[in-house]
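[09:14] KT: can someone run the structure on this one? pasting the chain below
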Amino acid sequence: MGTISTEAKEKAETLAEQLKSVVDAGQVKLDAAKERILDGKDMVADRAKSAMDTVTGAIKEHPLKAIAIAFGVGYVGMRILR
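[09:31] RB: done, structure tokens below
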């Protein structure tokens, strides 16, 4: 009986070590994915800021044209939703 108990303990320890290595590998992959997501978020934020700066510059350069476009879009939207 003692050898069965010892073998069971050894197998349980081996299984625990394997499980720990799987969990550790999963954590490494999770950390890498998190880093890629954060990099993507930063890239999207930079592009959005750049686009906003471009639009703001165009509005400042051509304010009457911007007002006319905004009016036109609003008018068409109103006509579609009625």
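[09:33] KT: thanks! Residues 2-81 form one domain.
[09:34] RB: yep, looked fine to me
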